Amino acid sequence: MQAYKILRTDGIYPFHVVDQDGLPHLELTLYACIAPKYHSSRTARAYVKEVVAFASWTASHPVVIRQNWQLLGAPEQVRALLAFFFTSEMKCVVALGKDRLGFETRRIEPTWETGRRLERLLAALRSFYGALRLCGRYHYENPMDADGARQRIEEERRRLVTAHIQTHGRGPMPPESGVDLVREVRFSAAYFRLRGDKWLPEVLDDPSLMNAVVTAGDQWGWSMREMGLVRVLFDTGCRLHEACHLTMADWFHSRFMKELVSINKGSHGRRTKRLFITDRTVKVLQRYVDEQRVLFDPYQRNLAAFAKLPTELLRDIPLFLTKRGTPLDPDHFRRDYWTPALSSSGLQLRCHQVRHWFVTMALNDVHKRSRSEEELQNSRGAIRELMAWKTDMLPTYDQAIRRHNLPELAHHIHVRMEQEHSTALARKKRQSARKGNALKTVSQQMLEEMLGL
């Protein structure tokens, strides 16, 4: 049982983090309430959950209690607490490290026993201590930063700027300008550094996956709403929360046809991504709006009624509704529709894996259709634009696909080796036979011919 839990309340403080006696933890409650000021709502919720879970572990672990390590203690205490957590709970290897600027760090190397990724926890704790310092509730330096790291980074940056001025007679231009063709040097003040935990997408290249999921949903009892939402995921490769946040204005962009606009990761509500769906998905969505959604709409509006409304009003009308007339929540869909439907058919698939499936299928398609290197690069660029990535993720997918194809590559190598081995044995036998025939006497050869050997 967790030592702390999060409660949603009304008033100035929308969240309370309370212990098992129902008493609030001041610093955790404060962070839960102010985190949305520094991060998006989804990121804030994820960070708060990470920090509260870590605080619960800290408050209940016997070794932590015996050592008197405090969540809000001095940086040395917090770092010792985290190092113990990584080694004992996460089964990681924690080793001494040194940054290129000279300050001391700790290198964290996950092992095969590490049950989950650690980037979010480290980012959440950095945000937690940084927010408390701004509010005056933590009176030390941020323990997630190495001692003296910020000062050394600033000194190094000043040194680089001074060297540039001495060489060119002016300060450096922004990297976006393209004037100074110098790679931007990235510095990190982090005390804990993850190693050997590079993220790779999951490769799913089964063309029948969409049909399997839709069949599982149909057998379980999905309505047109779930069918439409799932088809949007498979047609576009968008994230689940992006699909759930679609509004009627996003679809009216194409007059309720084959194109939608949506939010993107980090777009803060701005519609920066274009989604393209198939004719069949269009028909499913149109039927959903006219036959099912209309029953839960506050004004019983269908597509014809929405087409007459101004775009400003359509921006506040969600495409996917619950029976209460509220927007469909991603967690609600995942928990109450996606997981039970797929589990009943024996499918183990997360919603986000559909995105990896879409990119893998798109890459396979462009590599098959492209007739030249130029056409291939243009098609890959189109995929980047279609996915609206802020950074180029295609090299990461290429690496994942190569790893995924290693068993097939090994199989072809083994087949080739077996063929070469068989050919070599046959050649050796023929050579031995010819050599044996050459050593036979004339009388032996005549005798074999007479006996038909």
From TrEMBL:
Record CDD domains: DNA_BRE_C
UniProt key word NADP: no
Domain Tyr recombinase stretches: 195-411
Entry GO MF terms: DNA binding
UniProt keyword annotations, A-Z: DNA recombination, DNA-binding
One Gene Ontology term from the biological process aspect of the record: DNA recombination
Cited SUPFAM superfamilies: DNA breaking-rejoining enzymes
InterPro entries tied to this protein: DNA_brk_join_enz, Integrase-like_cat_sf, Integrase_catalytic, Tyrosine_recombinase_XerCD
Coiled coil: none
PANTHER family reported in the protein's UniProt record: INTEGRASE_RECOMBINASE PROTEIN MJ0367-RELATED, PHAGE INTEGRASE-RELATED
Protein name as catalogued: Tyr recombinase domain-containing protein
